[in-house]
Write a structure and sequence with these properties.
With 511 residues, the chain is an all-alpha fold. The chain is 66% helix and 1% strand. The protein has 25 helices and two strands. Strands 1-2 form a two-stranded parallel sheet. 54% of the residues are buried.
Length: 511
């Protein structure tokens, strides 16, 4: 069975096997037609150049396991190739996902150190090495946010030092998007806009470059900007059809624009490619990239009222007994969100209360998804005892996440919002309408100015939509209609919001 290739030093080994790249003889076709084309000049031996550029293409599409193996393969072919070690270190940095694990920290530092030691001071190779070495050195003394911002500054310096290096510009654009993502309340998206301004002019020059299409999608992955990435979304999968993430990524824009059939097709192709990768690697566990695609697909099916298709994905998620990588946010999120969405989007409050909480010690914010669904379901069906208990669990998870700090602070904020929304419905069931509306509105306002994480297609149930539900229930249909419209402005074509709006308008006519 294919497995991870040996690194030059033990610390360069990944913890999981990878799917093998095609044989070297088919490499040129593979780079052009299957994973995209990258032109990245190096001083490495000519015999490893194509392997190196293939690895960079994989890196740009976030296939980190394969990229690391390919970079290490290039380094074995030329032990003096500093940029191969740089790439191996970069493969342990997933700036738009989660911080490196301890094992990835160690492997990244080892590779970055080799990049430094095999490059000469003042050279382009050394400047790349310095940028990634700066990220991995002394991680215990700097949080992830600080390190990402430092990496962004370092890549900006590489661009200044080498103004003709377009790859430096592309990686700088990625670093800007990563920094912007760590400022989720910035509704101007100024870093993402700057990144897009740097990347977009390069697209005509490199039409088959996977990173350009990919990063433009990430830069514009927000309600105000999504329409600007539609062209990139329509082309990325064709650029890198062998990469599951490249097949999935266009759906970020399709979902932002309410293009449900396109989102479903995108994620079906991605999930199947991920499944094939699992089979090729001989895995008995599910790759979290497949779970990620299934979550997005389930969301889109629900917006078309395709309940049976969504139900099939719920059953797939329920059957998962192990995932790879373990303790991965992407996987835990999908396994919690898929069944929660299926219950909440269909107003099946009984089913919501019966959801099973899947323990996720590393990412307790995903446990909060299930607690939230259970709380809302209980409150909506009048089970105040269960609703109060689940709201209490949300409060405890929120506090634990705040204590953990770092990347968990984002999820603490998400959990706080879920707790507020749940408590609003609890207060309504107790007859305190004023408090209920105040809390529901607060949750909606906060959610509107907090950008979603790339791990999710959207809130499990939008807070503003829940606020509109409450207004409708207390006999204020005109106000409810306005809130449903506001929901649809941010999340076009949501089925539940459209139905709510129709109901509110019908009540308003009869007032």
């Amino acid at each position: 069975m294919p497995s991870l290739r040996r690194g030059l030093v033990p610390l360069l080994l990944l913890a999981v096997p990878t799917v093998s790249l095609p044989a070297q003889g088919d490499h040129a076709h593979h780079v052009e037609a299957r994973i995209g084309r990258v032109a990245f000049p190096t001083t490495c031996r000519a015999s490893v150049q194509s392997r190196f550029e293939s690895a960079v293409a994989l890196l740009h599409s976030f296939w980190y396991e394969e990229a690391a193996a390919a970079f290490e393969d290039a380094a074995r072919g030329d032990s003096t190739c500093s940029l191969a070690y740089w790439g191996a270190a970069m493969s342990r940095l997933h700036p738009l996902w989660t911080p490196p694990t301890p094992a990835e920290e160690a492997a990244g530092l080892a590779a970055a150190d080799l990049a430094m030691r095999t490059s000469r001071p003042g050279t382009r190779e050394r400047h790349y090495a310095e940028a990634i070495f700066g990220f991995f050195s002394n991680p215990g003394h700097r949080d992830f946010r600080t390190r990402i911002f430092a990496w962004e500054s370092a890549m900006a310096a590489v661009v200044r030092q080498h103004p003709g290096d377009d790859e430096a510009r592309i990686f700088h654009g990625l670093s800007q998007i990563a920094a912007g993502q760590l400022d989720p309340t910035d509704t101007t998206y100024h870093r993402q806009r700057e990144a897009a301004a740097e990347l977009t002019p390069l697209i005509p020059r490199y039409p088959d470059h996977p990173g350009l299409a990919h990063y433009v999608i990430h830069a514009f992955d927000s309600p105000a900007l999504a329409r600007y990435a539609l062209e990139a979304a329509n082309h990325y999968a064709a650029i890198a059809p062998a990469v599951p993430h490249a097949l999935h990524m266009p759906s970020h824009i399709f979902i932002r624009l309410g293009m449900w059939p396109e989102a479903i097709a995108s994620n079906q192709h991605s999930a199947e490619a991920a499944r094939q990768a699992e089979v090729a690697a001989g895995w008995t566990t599910v790759w979290t990239q497949r779970l990620h695609a299934l979550d997005y697909e389930a969301y889109a099916h629900l917006q078309l009222g395709q309940d049976s298709a969504a139900r099939a994905l719920v059953e797939q998620a329920a059957a998962v007994s192990g995932m790879r990588p373990e303790q991965d946010l992407v996987g835990y999120y999908a396994l919690a969100a898929i069944p929660a969405r299926y219950a909440l989007e269909r107003d099946d409050w009984d089913a919501a209360t019966q959801l099973r909480v899947r323990p996720a010690p590393a990412w307790r914010g995903t446990e909060a998804i299930t607690r939230f669904a259970r709380a809302i379901g209980a409150a909506r069906r009048g089970d105040s005892t269960l609703a109060v208990a689940e709201a209490g669990e949300l409060g405890r998870i929120e506090e634990a996440l705040r204590q953990a700090a770092g990347p968990q602070l984002y999820w603490a904020g998400q959990t706080r919002n879920q707790r507020l929304a749940a408590e609003a419905w609890i207060d309504l069931s107790r007859g305190d309408t004023a408090a209920a509306l105040r809390e529901a509105r607060a949750a909606a306002d906060t959610e509107d100015v907090t950008e979603k994480h790339p791990v999710t297609p959207g809130p499990v149930l939008p807070a503003r939509e829940l606020y509109a539900d409450m207004l409708l229930q207390v006999g204020r249909p005109r106000e409810a209609a306005a809130e449903y419209r506001a929901t649809l402005e941010r999340q076009p074509n949501r089925l539940r919001a459209r139905r709510g709006l129709e109901q509110a308008q019908a009540y308003s006519v009869n007032e």
